[in-house]
């Protein structure tokens, strides 16, 4: 790869030629969709639109406000992965920075103007890369900032005032939001608990807040924020049926791109529970046949006044400290007074006492107001019990799976997947899986189909497999199983009599056939009576004329046609066995001899 070579590629203008005046702000929000770039004002007005002729599928977008240069990543371009464009150039010349590499999928891009460093995340190569891009001259060779094997890094963002880079790891087996210095040192995990698949991250420099968007099982999205170190975590948006891609924040609002509705959504940074996002711009009915992807807000990628932000932070810290000191002094003063038992003490509630000098109520720790009617613990702890500490301030003891200063965060909410049971141990959610495995029960057993078959009919799977799979049939499946078994019982009650009748008929036919076969096999034996002449003159087959000179013989089952006038009726008697010819001759000769003796 020779990143020092530049190839000129032209833009084709669709609507207007976007001219950038260094003294006037021409756009607040930039969106890439397909090979197009669209620029919007904060009031949703489209201020410019351009098409990159050589682009295929734009994904990430970054901006250098000092030189008015934009950086883009292309996930489908066969030649270029990252390229830049000078917005001051009316010819809209496109310059490639990184040539296409195998197994590369760049989704997040960020540019640090202070060090003139371009950073990007590669979800397929599992790395965070950086490259120095000077104002004049070619860029330097890219180097690996972080090797994130099996973590699938996606969105990245820069905290320019503190020189930190933030990124999200989208691998659902180990999702997290991480941070490090721009040189790669001091890498820490900022957010880890109660995440499913974080997609994008953004930094609000003015408020010094970290924002991220989480795609929960592809069904719901959560937009959350916290301090830059991950503390004071808040849930802002919990919407459904969206597939987010990119996230941006300006001084007033939050923006994100959505592939399901093919739209840009927005909501106020100060949104409260129940607030609904509004559609900033829709591409559903436009001429685009692709979905919006990368999005940036100029407020947080432009020239950030870090000095003013630090001054504001210091002022806020001082005010909070003074308020705490004043509150503490008031509480100490109230504790130094003894309780009054006079008649006027009845005017002070919650065991408050009348100050004899001023006539006002001196309240006990945890109460305030003219008559000590305000309880600091009232509705303070959202999920748990409240108590007053030694400084008179409320503190919460959270119950169940809730944590936070006011027990406002449920660590187990949407944490355990596939019907896993969640519990909290050492302030961290722990899952007990039923028919899956993993830290969040995210991986089903490989025998899921067998488990489903077992839940449908428990008799079809051996007990050893059912115990291993830990199947649990739902009530619906059990009712369906009962219905199926009832239907099978009805069918059995109809089929069994029919089958019995068929068997009875078959037995009767067999008995009748057996009777006739045995009857036919019992054939009568054939007897033949012949009268033979004593003189031997009359032929053996003829009867003699004189009754005094004749005799009578009987021949049974004879098969010799020289003697018998008719053939045998039973074939087996005519079938000669081996070695039986001599026996028949002997029988014939013996018969003739007897005839001759009788003739005499």
Structure description:
The protein is of the alpha+beta class. 20% of the residues lie in helices and 34% in strands. The protein has a five-stranded antiparallel sheet with strand order 1-4-3-2-25, with no helix packed on it. β3 and β4 form a beta hairpin. It is flat and about 165 Å long. 30% of the residues are buried.
Structural class: alpha+beta
Strand tally is 39
For the biggest β-sheet, the strand order reads: 1-4-3-2-25
Count of helical regions: 6
Shape, principal axes of CA atoms: flat
**Beta content:** 25-35%
Task: Give the averaged pLDDT, no decimals.
Answer: 77
Radius of gyration: 50 Å
Helix content: 10-25%
- As residue ranges, the low-confidence spans are 1-23, 338-345, 458-476, 536-544, 568-577
Query: Biggest β-sheet: count, sense, barrel?
Result: 5 strands, antiparallel
Distance between the termini: 135 Å
Structural features:
600 residues; alpha+beta; four-stranded antiparallel β-sheet; 39 strands; 20% helix; flat
